[in-house]
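Quick log. Single chain, no ligands specified.
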Amino acid sequence: MRDERTGPVAETPGRHSGRRDDELRPVTFERGHTRYAEGSVLVSFGETRVLCTASVEERVPVFLRGTGRGWVTAEYALLPRSTDRRTRRERSGPSGRTAEIQRLIGRSLRTAVDLNALGPRSILLDCDVLQADGGTRTAAICGAFVAMVDALRVLRGAGAFPTLPLFSCVTAVSAGKVGGRLLLDLDSAEDREAAVDFNVVMDHRGDFAEVQGTGERGSFSRADAGRLFDLCQKGCDEIRALQLEALGLTREEMDFPAP
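-> predicted structure:
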């Protein structure tokens, strides 16, 4: 590589994976991965793989009884050998990390659903990490949305509502600052070295449903935050296109009303 004014210029070293700084890992959504759930998706972000299933129950939590409103909630788990050493099953209840991720997934997916139109029923999203290589919570959100849409289609087919009760598409991705560089979609090796770590959940309008940003090794500037948001928006736009392609959403189904 050569700059015509100053002569040879050293190329910026790439990431260990060979990706560009603003490049996602390969992302896939395999629908119908299990037999019994109303919706099921195996989502892969590189070597991270999460099985997301959506189950419908004709009941709601106590605080919603008699309101006519529905509910969307989530559970998340790392399977025992999803990481480089065995993770013990959380038999006595979720750890603080697990509970926080479950709440994040549930909150994110509820922003997409018209709970009044859903009616007095619940959609339970189970996100089980089969293999973890960074970004498991964001992969879980992306896969859970696809599984949830399939479950809503089953309900629509049974006459629960005439159109899908959706306000938006929900997509999530991570980004961070590693070795002074701003990178999209961190894998676990990059995440361990990150000085700044962001997880962003967005809708199809480019609005935020959730932002988690942490200075793991000190503070970060507003300029860095803005650049990380730009990276996340680029990543979410690309992932959303894959979600919609996997679902084969029709033009009518994609015409989400404003919440």
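The two ends are 50 Å apart (CA to CA).
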